[in-house]
Structure prediction request, 270 residues.
Amino acid sequence: MPELPEVETTRRGIEPFLHNKQIKSVQVHNSSLRWPVPNTITRLADARVQHVSRRGKYIVLTNKLGSAIIHLGMSGSLRIDKQTIPKRKHDHVELLLANKHVVRFHDPRRFGCFLWHEGPVEEHPLLAKLGPEPLANQFTGEYLFTATRKRNVPIKTLIMNSQVVVGVGNIYASEALFMSGIRPGKAAKRLSRREADALCKQIRDVLQKSIEKGGTTLRDFINSDGEPGYFAQSLFVYGREGEPCQTCKTPIKKTVMAQRSTFYCSACQS
Prediction:
């Protein structure tokens, strides 16, 4: 599943083609996504796009009439093509631009969404209860420490809760915990203030580095240019079960936590 860095990479890729631009038309070839694509999505072409933003793992295209809310689902992507290039089988929504380009929403498994919302986009039910952005000023060590009090869940589970902080997916949670020296199964309430500060910093750092490198290479993910991301080459623990820790040479361990594969170093993380 594309995570926050992949979604942010995509947002940055499509922004120059859409910001302050008029979409000529919206073509829906298959409306049967996770939720049906509404007929009102055509209102995206009725005014210039004022903002190309991201909230958690959602890309938001806003004009003066409302906002398109886009989620890439398990295998989706947004890419820029020339209109002369034929669409692919699973290109379900197309935004035709005046400069002979087209933004194509591609989703083979159809777990993504392409919705329309009028009014403040932050009030949409999908966005209303989301926690702070991990790269925003509101996400601090103090905030994270407060959020962990009286919470007995594993710290990895807590930081993957989108109502606590958005966009810290499975890969990045494992990596940030390793960089912080915190074992994934540690009860959240046992986190010290120093550990909360360290974890906040490492979440920021690992996500920012991944964004800079184009996102994690996932089987189904391509960025807006149709190329895979490259951050997977820099992973310290995720997917490295049995391989030596790059810090201490102890074999990396794997466990399952909340039905997600979790990787850690038993020597470096306590």
User: Anything to note?
Assistant: The longest helix spans residues 193-213. The radius of gyration is 20 Å. The mean pLDDT is 92.
